[in-house]
Design a protein that fits this description.
7% of the residues lie in helices and 60% in strands. It is mostly beta strands and 192 residues long. It has two helices and eight strands, in the order H-E-H-E-E-E-E-E-E-E.
């Protein structure tokens, strides 16, 4: 977020139609995940958004949620780009290393069984795609607030370990199919 705001103030904006934006997802900021999004106009009603997220650390209670991913998305705007309603089609891919030391979640929803995180660590990669709906509110000449939610599919391939600190591998190349929420964003946007 700080990087996005700094770039917005240091880079001159161009006159005419809005064609480029940088953004930060406030939901990821609240989860202490570094993130940055770039969006470029392709046609009067089309844009390409590319968002990335990186979380390299372990939480104080021993939970491990390390990940890095990219999520490009083609957007169709109902009126003008960067304002109002839009539909998107996105793909996503990344790597992860997750455990839930001490968490006793009994949540098993649309495929994932999060209770397994209590005693296991999963390390691997994922890829998938989905569709989304969003709305951008104009706050000022260059500032927008953007709300978006998306659903789709993700394929996970993991190596499974005994616990966060243990090195004993229990299983290799465990596949998992996920259907559900694939995008949630509350973006603070600077439009050039």
């Amino acid at each position: 977020m700080i990087l996005a705001v700094a770039i917005a103030f240091l880079c001159p904006s161009r006159a005419g139609a809005q064609g480029f934006a940088i953004k930060s997802n406030l939901a990821y900021d609240a989860l202490a995940a570094a993130n940055l999004g770039l969006e470029v106009g392709l046609a009067p009603r089309w844009t390409l958004d590319v968002s990335g997220n990186y979380m390299p650390w372990k939480f104080y209670n021993g939970n491990l949620r390390k990940h890095a991913f990219l999520q490009p998305e083609a957007r169709f705007w109902f009126c003008d780009r960067f304002a109002g309603h839009f539909l998107g089609i996105h793909c996503h891919g990344g790597i992860y290393n997750a455990s839930g030391a001490g968490i006793d979640d009994k949540i098993a929803w649309l495929g994932p069984d999060f209770s397994k995180l209590k005693d296991r660590r999963y390390e691997g990669w994922f890829a998938g795609a989905g569709i989304s709906y969003g709305y951008a509110v104009i706050l000022g000449r260059h500032w927008n607030m953007e709300f978006e939610v998306g659903a789709g599919y993700a394929y996970f391939l993991s190596d499974v370990y005994e616990c966060e600190k243990c090195g004993s591998k229990l299983d290799t190349d465990v596949a998992h199919h996920y259907f559900g929420l694939t995008k949630a964003a509350i973006n603070l946007v600077y439009v050039f």
